[in-house]
Design a protein that fits this description.
Order of helices and strands: EEEEEEEEEEHEEEHHEHHEEHHEH
Distance between the termini: 57 Å
Strand content: 15-25%
Largest sheet: 7 strands, mixed
Radius of gyration: 20 Å
Number of helices: 8
Structural class: alpha+beta
Shape: globular
CATH superfamily of the largest domain: Zn peptidases
């Protein structure tokens, strides 16, 4: 029996792995940071045995409330992921499972590997309507990929979609996969209509280094990218520096920043009420976007989410706040759960890659409903 994590996005440290019924583990911190919660590892050689895998430092994770009601993800082929029995008690989580194969993977959420990222980008770039630009390099020397979809004709709206500032929030890139899948479907009349009205700039992965390193929240130097938008430094957070620089060139009418929330079992959107100069008309459009999204996809709801800031109290280093202020744009942070959605539960898979992709599809319906008013 062996536990390993020396692969793309892997993260676990083995304390003891001799007895399948008493495997003891801990999660490694992000480099140069105290953040941790993402785990991803392979168990081999335990087919047919009841395995109890206890992560002993779960209680000190970034969002300990996220373990309440949480079920770990498991897969034999890394394509189909199911949920398995997981309990949280006295600062530890214990995953119990009887593997049906001598090779099984466990993860905090279904991983989105850098290899899959490269496939996503390459497949999109094959479309004649898509241009791929490498707008810079990360601290580990990885490419910062930007997909431009459509042309910059006069009068067209400028739509930005960025995802995975926090690398452990892999649901964000699953969302983008679905978003691109529908947007580039030439048989989809709504997508064709949107591309006549707008040009899209899409960054499927804002944090390639953190993704490959198996981080929860930070880049290679321990920077939380979603706290770097006010004054990004190319030496510590080139990812935001290059993306914001490109945004300054294009301008923005609407930007969607896609994330995952560890604790809340809901899909929801946070807006920019707390910036110094909130435009009420832009806020109304953001709320209408949400109402439309809720109609098109019942996995989305508006009752639960983050508290709204009062004007002038927002943290202006956060992407959505800074971009709403800087460009007078409709800026929104879309959050998805690591658990299941309390309003539309599906216990076998909980929130899943397939549901992420479907939500990506539905956001195009919401966008189409308001695009003429941007």
């Amino acid at each position: 029996m062996k536990i390993s994590s020396n692969f793309d996005a892997g993260n676990i440290e083995v304390i003891e792995a001799v007895n399948p019924g008493n495997i003891r583990l801990c999660i490694a911190k992000d480099n140069k940071s105290d953040f941790y919660q993402w785990f991803y590892f392979r168990l081999t050689g335990a087919k047919g045995q009841l395995c109890a895998m206890t992560i002993e430092n779960a209680g000190g994770a970034a969002y300990a409330r996220g373990w309440e009601g949480y079920q770990a993800c498991a897969s034999y082929d890394r394509e189909e992921w199911v949920r398995v029995s997981t309990t949280y008690h006295d600062g530890e989580i214990t995953i119990q499972h009887i593997p049906e194969s001598d090779s099984v993977y466990y993860a905090y959420f279904a991983p989105y590997s850098m290899e899959r990222h490269h496939s996503l980008v390459s497949q999109a770039a094959e479309d004649e309507r898509v241009s791929l630009h490498v707008i810079g390099e990360t601290l580990d020397g990885q490419d910062m990929d930007l997909l431009t979809i459509g042309d910059m004709a006069v009068g067209k709206k400028v739509i930005w979609v960025i995802a995975r500032q926090h690398p452990g929030e892999t649901m964000a890139e699953w969302f983008v996969e679905g978003f691109l899948e529908r947007l580039l479907d030439e048989e989809d009349a709504l997508s064709r209509s949107l591309l006549e009205k707008a040009v899209f700039y899409v960054v499927p992965n804002m944090n390639p280094d953190g993704s490959r390193r198996g981080h929860l929240r930070t880049n290679a130097k321990g920077a939380n990218l979603n706290r770097e938008w006010e004054n990004p430094n190319v030496a510590t957070c080139p990812e935001v520096f290059y993306v914001r620089g490109k945004m300054d060139e294009t301008g923005i009418d609407l930007v969607l920043d896609v994330h995952g929330d560890e604790a809340l079992p809901y899909n929801f959107i946070a807006c920019f009420e707390g910036i110094p100069d909130p435009d009420e008309a832009k806020l109304d459009l953001a709320y209408e976007y949400q109402r439309q999204l809720m109609q098109y996809n019942p996995d989305f709801q508006m009752e639960y989410g983050y508290p709204k800031d009062t004007p002038g109290t927002a943290n202006m280093t956060v992407g959505t706040h800074q971009l709403a202020h800087r460009f007078q744009a409709v800026a929104m942070t879309l959050e998805m759960p690591f658990k299941d959605t309390a309003n539309c539960p599906r216990p076998e898979t909980c929130w899943s890659p397939r549901r992420c992709r479907k939500l990506g599809h539905s956001n195009l319906d919401a966008l189409a409903a308001i695009i003429d008013r941007l």
